[in-house]
Design goal:
The structure is a homodimer of 339-residue chains.
Chain A: E1 9-22, E2 25-36, E3 43-50, E4 55-62, E5 68-69, E6 75-78, E7 81-84, E8 86-95, E9 102-103, E10 119-128, E11 131-140, E12 143-151, E13 157-164, E14 168-178, E15 181-188, E16 198-203, E17 208-216, E18 227-230, E19 235-239, E20 242-252, E21 259-267, E22 270-278, H1 288-291, E23 299-307, E24 310-317, E25 321-328, H2 329-334, E26 336-337
Chain lengths: 339, 339
């Protein structure tokens, strides 16, 4: 369904979409990963955006002349330096029923800066007033930072630079102001000392973020014991006896490496405070296309559409395809336990 | 010269001081590291601030009952979890001549939050108008973040929370506004993909920081090829044919692990842009107390006082003691080369 941007490239995955209602439509902002189509057996290749020349280039290496490690399908390590096997951009898809989508033939957001030489990935969209704020992972050899863009119509996009320095991804901006400020969840990845945990921050202008606070940690011996991070943009829930922000997040299980989804209920006036948390996953890889694929054992969401009891979760399956699942808000809330 | 805060603790190091002029005095804000004084041979101990009870506690483990790794003198790894062998606080020292200091008998800033359970370290002081802004490393099992405090008199201090999430240390805030905004250098430490490099950010209120940009990277095959980070607070130079911000930074040499100092000259109107950079170190470990100590082969600055040609650098030597060196501004500038 998705056309590559160039003849030399092939689409290897369309996944981890942001999702939001726009008028009568459902909009997805898909991560489209492209790899080099033809690579000789004795070669390895990596597609890279070269900001100095302002163009995508294909780097190639002779396997015999370098130390090459291709253990992880997502990356190629050449003489100790990491390159990605694919480069991602963001593309709009539209649907009137939320199930059948038309994918635009051209990208919405392509890599354009030195911070995006390895691609732009995993967008989230937050509507505030008439503006749709888009945050995404800006990936390069400098690390994985979070960039910000905005649009009013999903046709013209403005870029606003890096809002969280590396490594920080899985940022979700809450759709509203609290105490006059914007709030976001973010997920720093400290090297050495530290934990891969969810933090919060606040901002008065979307561009500068401060007041960083720890929100949630992996839980030893549970389904989310390895690492956790933001998933879909939190939405306000006032139903079934709870009032707060419901944040669907992802958690990784240490023993299996499986990516599953759970929920955090955050205090309505302070989204850095977890009120309740899913005891068990609300979704785990089950279908063949979730268990097997480019990177198997993964369900990973960047966006959902909530309508009454129906929580329609759009998600990437096995880092390869985009899927959708309808969950019951009542059941998500019934599955919440101690924070 | 420095009294411990409690009988059970001994001062194991006084180093990495912030430095600034305050009226007729030179003020240092010393990092005072304290370790547990008496530990039985079959035990290991770690001093920790417990935010839940609001007090410093000493954790002890029987060596025989746990996997204990004490390879690095700065930390103890117990069953895979890292603890520090000492806990640091910040203490004021005053001098009228910049050489002879009186150290206050009590701390200025002690660990007080969950983000500081392993200590507060490596302060930098930036004066803007009548306020002295103090940033420091907030160290805990959650990682190494950067906290902000302020004072007008070095007697009463206000705290302002976390301004850079983990892992991010070696923050230096420029002493002035550029284009109406504050600017800082910072040093994220990405895990996995990424580089330990110096970045910049800007802020309108000191609390929320945005517009993150890459400033400088380690240089392959040079004295700063392993990692680099901010050192002293940058100061404005208009002399010897240059105009810009001079930032004395630290660089680590891969082969030896040595910490040396160099300088970056940053554009006066854009401190994210490096105009020139030291070819060779402006200071490297030479004296016995720099080459040998708690962690040998280290000169590390968090502050200097510039007066005409004399750049008086205060620095930590071998993570143990505080030392001072007078450098010539003309010679620092003469040693600058390509960015």
């Amino acid at each position: 369904m998705v056309q590559p941007t160039r003849d030399e490239l092939g689409v290897v995955g369309v996944f981890n979409p942001a999702a939001i209602r726009h008028g009568d439509d459902t909009i997805l902002l898909l991560r489209v990963a492209e790899g080099v189509r033809e690579v000789a057996e004795d070669m390895v290749a990596a597609p890279v955006y070269d900001a100095a020349v302002g163009a995508m280039v294909i780097r190639r290496w002779h396997r015999g002349e370098h130390r090459v490690d291709t253990t992880d399908p997502r990356m190629t390590v050449i003489d100790g330096k990491t390159w990605l096997t694919s480069i991602s951009h963001l593309r709009v898809a539209r649907s009137s029923d939320g199930i059948h989508f038309i994918v635009e033939p051209v990208p919405a957001l392509l890599p354009t800066t030195v911070y995006e030489s390895f691609g732009v990935e995993d967008a989230r969209i937050t509507r505030i007033d008439a503006t749709y704020w888009i945050n995404y992972s800006a990936v390069s050899s400098y690390g994985i930072a979070t960039g910000l863009a905005s649009t009013r119509d999903f046709r013209v996009f403005a870029r606003h630079g890096i809002i969280f320095p590396p490594n920080n991804r899985d940022v979700t901006i809450l759709p509203g102001r609290i105490g006059g400020r914007y709030h976001a969840l973010h997920r720093p990845m400290p090297a050495g000392l530290g934990e891969v945990a969810i933090w919060s921050a606040s901002s008065h202008d979307m561009l500068a973020w401060g007041d960083h606070r720890l929100v949630a940690m992996p839980r030893a011996g549970r389904w989310d014991d390895e690492k956790i991070g933001g998933g879909a943009v939190p939405f306000r829930v006032r139903a079934h006896g709870v009032d707060g922000w419901l944040a669907v997040y992802h958690g990784v299980t240490k023993a299996s490496g499986t990516y599953s989804l759970g929920a955090l209920l955050l205090a309505p006036d302070d989204p850095s405070r977890v009120v309740a948390r899913s005891i068990d996953p609300i979704m785990a890889p089950e279908a063949p296309y979730e268990r097997e694929g480019f990177y198997g054992g993964v369900v990973f969401t960047c966006g959902l559409v909530d309508e009454g009891d129906r929580v329609r979760v759009y998600y990437g399956a096995a880092d390869g395809v985009t899927a959708v699942a309808d969950l019951s808000l009542a059941r998500i809330i019934a599955g919440l336990g101690a924070p």
